[in-house]
Amino acid sequence: MFLPKYPDSPTPPPTHPHTVADQMPARRPAPQISVSTGAVAAVLVGGVVLTALLAAVAVAAVSVAVAAVVLRSLLRDQPRR
Question: Membrane-spanning residues where (predicted)?
């Protein structure tokens, strides 16, 4: 009653051998990258600070250039007076 019943004619094993092409290539699992909100905030603040520093350098360069042009024009007209 509790004995398993086997089929009369078992299915034969497959006749074709498995080749490497039949197998799917093994996939490496992708690494889990977790980005915390602190890291995102640090990158954003760093970007804002660097942008502000770049703007300050540009404004300083323009002001130095204007001062140089004004001084040059003043010194050039000095002997004529």
Answer: 38-71
